[in-house]
Amino acid sequence: MLIKVRGKKYRPEAFFMIAPVLLLYTFVIIYPLGNMVFTSFFEWNGIPTDPYRFVGIGNYVTFFQDYTTKTAFINLGILCVTGLFVTIPVSLFLATVVSKKFFGIRFVKTCYFLPVVINRIAICLMFTFIMLPGQGPVPVLLKELGIAEHFNLFNDIHTAMWGVALVNMWSNVGFQMIIFSSGMAAISEDVYEAAAMDGVTPWQRLIYITLPQLKPTFKIVVVFVLTGAFKVFDFIMGLTGGGPGYATDVPNTLLYKNAFTYSKFGYANAIAVIMIVLCLVITVVTNRVFAERAGE
């Protein structure tokens, strides 16, 4: 006996084989997401025995009316912009460096990729000591050069978020470099050899051969960079805790504080839903943009 699904016939044993995976996916992914969306329409303190109070879209309205939301999205924009216009160009440059063959290439690759494998809280601790006011090497150097007498990167309301963005870029550039270098390795050497025979300069080779061939790789990297900005949490909590004040808060930290500090789990789930929707929109738009360019 065969089961017909969308015009195709399948043996019933196939459904029994995928049933455990479907059940696991349902309990691990589908149910938590459904429960999150459901509770986002209620005011609830997270205690199972306490009642839910239905507020409709009240949590969503409150989020967009909150005075901290504007700052959180500005900070999120800083992470996205620095990722797009600093992390991607730097990682592409590093990928072109490691794609060459020279003595010590393995050591160079390891050094570039090292920030990716270091524990992120350890990175926070490292940069805290580097930027420690009055004692860290950077503040001391700036003071000796007469540039800044009291440099305090992570505790200044005007520079704290840029400091977090710097650490985030430093930690992610190695990962994007690996993606770009993998894309470059997939480009046929015959194309480069033909270009060399035609007298193409290294700059023309990069602009007219390498970059067009890396369009699928760029799509992956852009999605990673933009959605990764939405997931930045540990660097903010480890370096600034969202401060000074709420100067370095992003939607993720607002979600955490409302859930685990103020016990507003319904409101926190509403923030989580908004973030998921925004990530999906970014992914779809990025795919559309690169698909249109590929068509052109």
TrEMBL record:
Gene3D superfamilies: MetI-like
Transmembrane feature ranges: 14-34, 72-98, 110-132, 160-180, 220-247, 267-290
One GO-annotated biological process of the protein: transmembrane transport
SUPFAM superfamilies assigned: MetI-like
This protein's UniProt keywords: Cell membrane, Membrane, Sugar transport, Transmembrane, Transmembrane helix, Transport
GO CC aspect terms: plasma membrane
Stated family: Belongs to the binding-protein-dependent transport system permease family.
Annotated protein name in UniProt: Multiple sugar transport system permease protein/raffinose/stachyose/melibiose transport system permease protein
